[in-house]
Amino acid sequence: MAFKKVVRDRKFWLMVILQGLAFAVLYQVISIFFEYGGLNFSAYFEAKFGEDLVD
Fold first, then answer.
1. What is the distance between the alpha carbons of residues 14 and 6, in angstroms, rounded to a whole number?
2. How deeply is 40 buried, as exposed, middle or buried, from its count of CB atoms within 10 A (0-12, 13-18, 19+)?
3. Nearest-angstrom CA–CA distance, 23 and 13
4. Residue 23 exposed, middle or buried by CB count within 10 Å (0-12, 13-18, 19+)
5. Sign of the alpha-carbon torsion through 19, 22, 24, 30
6. pLDDT of 39-53, one tens digit each?
7. By C-alpha distance, which of 6, 3, 2 is closest to 15?
8. Closest CA to 28 of 15, 41, 46, 14
């Protein structure tokens, strides 16, 4: 019975969504760190989106 009560709670689903977003952001930051040897966001955006978006 407690499981159904938790699953119906709006706060539960909000936390599920927030944790999913936090995982995605953290995964991307770690990926940038390993692929580019540090937190080189300009090289990451250039590789992902092309040169026309990077000044």
1. 12
2. middle
3. 15
4. exposed
5. negative
6. 888 888 888 888 665
7. 6
8. 41
